Amino acid sequence: MLRSTPRSLPSLLALLALSNLVLSASLPAGQAHDHAPLRKRLPGTWYQPGDHPAHALFRRGKRDTSNDGVDYPPVGSSQWSAGYPQGKPDPTEYPQEWLNALNAAVAAGNIPNVPVSTQVNGGNPTYGSLDPTGNEVCSTTYGCRNNDDIWDAPDGVWAAGFDDGPLPTSDKLYQFLQQNNVRSTHFMIGVNILGNPNEFSFAFETLGDDIAVHTWTHPYMTTLSNEQLVGEFGWTMEIIHNSTGGHLPKYWRPPYGDSDNRVSAIAKEVFGLQTIIWNHDTEDWSIDQPGYSTTPESVNASLTQWITGPKSPGLIVLEHELTEFTVQAFIDAFPLIKSSGWDIVSVTELDGESAYANADGDDGEVTPVSGIFLNAPAAAASNASASASGVNFGSSSAATSSSASPSQSAGSSGGAAGAGGAKQAVGSAGSSSSSIHAAAAPTGTNLASGATSVHWQHVLGDVPGMLAAMFTVLVSAVVFA
Ligand SMILES: [Zn+2]
């Protein structure tokens, strides 16, 4: 159970993050050793009464009583694509409403003044002399469980969710989910939605699955400023909102499982997003990657151990729709999940709630968002008491530190542990569909060789600029040790 967390990571990660390239996830260390009072269910309706301020952040179009107030270009159209950043969000191009909401939350004292973390050579983010597991920071990378975050499923429940889509590799998974009538939550990356509109629409419209936020460009979120965080959340919510007839996501999952009290607060206070982590990591993303011993067999062995193991707590397993290997890992494990008696539900169905803040079910009528924000303007201040179940920053009882240490990890599978264990880069499945997605890029991998490539041409307006940036990164990636 115990194993060491890698002490350092390739500088590649930082390069990639800086270059808007999409990376994938790894494991927050130590969650199995946490003794804090844990939430095992997704939140109920505590934040839904009253008017939800996030509503105003996305209904900025001309008002039309026949819809929810926004003109929605057809998903995949050039008009649709033109509405979003083609790479890392530029704060000077945000809707002013987002920055106003951030400023209001900060002014109200609802965003803790946790310093931006520092990341060196792709290692675990650090906070200077501050204890990352302490009440002030409470970094998920180090296994600290904020009371508001979700790590476990109810007993006997398998929470089905997949990160990093939509991608061309999602197609096989979606077919399987459809054939087996499995509902799941897709933690989607904004730029991947932009690049793979057909897969996105299939997940939402045909599967009727839940769409959750996995940020716009998949950075280590704790390394970003408040303003940068707003863009990563905001644009992803915007493209989901505007591509689903106005459904506003309620949940998000941090890339690499990297969040802390500040990041979690901005997600919640500005955008109403609940943070979902996981309690087991298949490390499926590292299958068949140079430098890793992870194989389909080793992933299957880990899954088999968890599936046939204790039913308490229920399982939230980190899985990806990232490569053919990650997809096949779930497909191969599915019969055993079924035969072992797990109640398989979408991650966001754990508490019987809709995945969206403003609709009655996935195909229900979209209604104005309602809910509670700690930074609610005066009109909603009367609802502030409902935020009591949220994080009370500055209170020692709120951001509960876990007893986990960075040297501990929950998963029993092999491979890297710790959020810093993520070693992924940009690649593509070679599909004709546009994609920005991650193929594992472990330490020492020569990214300029092999099958990694990127297809931007169908989606990005600023193709030359982005290609130049990516080329620079890929070349740079060759030389790190
Ligand atoms: Zn991811």
Overview of the structural elements:
This protein is α/β, with parallel strands linked by helices and 481 residues long. 27% of the residues lie in helices and 8% in strands. The chain is built from twelve helices and ten strands. The two termini are 28 Å apart. The chain is globular. Helix 5 (170-179) runs parallel beside helix 11 (324-339). It has helices at 11-18, 54-58, 78-81, 96-107, 170-179, 190-195, 197-206, 226-243, 261-271, 296-307, 324-339, 463-479; strands at residues 157-163, 185-188, 210-213, 251-252, 274-275, 280-281, 315-318, 343-346, 424-427, 437-440. Zinc ion binds at residues 24-25, 163-164, 214, 218, 255. One of its GO terms (molecular function) is chitin deacetylase activity. Residues 62-91, 397-424 are annotated as: Disordered. It comes from Phanerochaete carnosa (strain HHB-10118-sp).
Secondary-structure content class: alpha/beta
Mean pLDDT: 70
Q: Tell the overall outline.
A: globular
N-to-C series of helices and strands: HHHHEHEHHEHEHEEHEHEEEH
CATH superfamily: Glycoside hydrolase/deacetylase
Bound molecules: zinc ion
CATH topology, by name, is TIM Barrel
Tell me the Rg in angstroms. Answer: 20 Å
What would you call the quaternary organization? single chain
Give the class-level CATH name: Alpha Beta
Gap from first CA to last CA: 28 Å
CATH architecture: Alpha-Beta Barrel
Low-confidence stretches: 1-50, 368-481
- Percent of residues in β-strands: 5-15%
Keywords:
481 residues; alpha/beta; TIM Barrel; 6-stranded parallel beta sheet; two-stranded parallel sheet; binds zinc ion
